[in-house]
């Protein structure tokens, strides 16, 4: 064979190969043009044809934790399993002889799916046939919503292209009703509705990402076409409360509220040095895991939303302003009968009958004499007393700013009538909230320095950035001497007052004052025979660390403020033990009452 004859087949092979390469190069160039150069235009075409898909990547909502990091609220991932009814009923497989193809009845898949989801196979068939009955071209129906991660993985293992999944974050509250009044809750769709779930939504909310891809006309995702914009989780909100203490006090106030046959009750603990609230327990309350089982009135926090006349707890504020203004001392005296009519016509009475006593200021607090406090209070003008009450926080709310928090009410002094001029000396004609009363007593226990109250420790963002609350600076409200003398008088109340035996805490000196507030009726007067009762105390009295306040709304077993005394004793005992506060030293200086 000649060389020329040998070259001819080789040349033909080379030419054919070059032609093939040229064709492939043309396809590659066209593919680059479609997927890169003019991708945007063709993605639009794909979307118009239903060939582009996307999936939202959810950023998890951040956790809420207590002062020690105990989780109070967290997110878990559930999934909505979705099915493509048209694709599910048009899946093909080879015929038994291997020569052709046949449609696979959906019933053949239903049994395996049902084993994973826990549904009945017939129920699954009905979902698919029902969707197609409404729309023969249906490409979407819910197979089952809210499946667990285990069920999700089980369905993925089946490898069925007509089942897809949408992640659905779900909120979990491991401690149930403990701090439920503070933590709050979200809707089934994850919308924050109450408490710090709502108040700290900016901290807790994550940002969603997006995964986009292209798919074939039959709904199968095309590998390599995915683009991902990642999601970002929310931050961690740390509260100031102690979960263990909150649990104990929640149990205690539930027991005491029911024992005293009251409508509701609260126990709150404030750390004096920092202004941080360490517990805020109430009954009834809400379990964020089961919001619907709680009455709507119990889904917030009465500690912050309820304002009331402080009653006799307000008498300590009158004593503090008198001492600070220098117009009286603990041993200053006034004569006071059980009932007196003042020069302006105001009529004031004490809650018990007694002859005319030459009451000391300390004695007026110990016996809780309205008449004596009225006379002492008259040593200052109404304007002076109004301004002191305002400085103590009456009518101004707190720095916490809890959802629906009441501010309390303090009328201008020029609006005080003849009776109000005197009733304001013993805690009537103005209103406060539990945190406001505790803030004022903490100020007295803290040498006259008022600390801003807080319930939030910090928000820690996913990148580690820590954001702390922007709180005002501590403020010296009254002199240290006036505060210390007032604190000593409040300790005398605990030692010599009517509830002394009920509030003793072994090993600790206690300062405490009760309050029995009348409740307003619809006609502008007061309800007969029902009261909002309270007691506030701090310990150790010689070096105060914590203020504790107990309230009971309309107790019926014991109607006076004595109803709250046993709860205060138990709460203070637990607080001293829980925080390992050193026992008291020394004995209090006792004042003469008259």
From TrEMBL:
Key words of the record: Cell cycle, Cell division, Membrane
Pfam families the UniProt entry points to: PBP_dimer, Transpeptidase
Domain of life from the UniProt record: Bacteria
Keyword check for Membrane: yes
GO cellular component, one term: plasma membrane
A GO BP entry: cell wall organization
Any one GO molecular function term: penicillin binding
Localization per record: Membrane
Family note: Belongs to the transpeptidase family.
Protein name: Cell division protein FtsI
Organism: Microbacterium sediminis
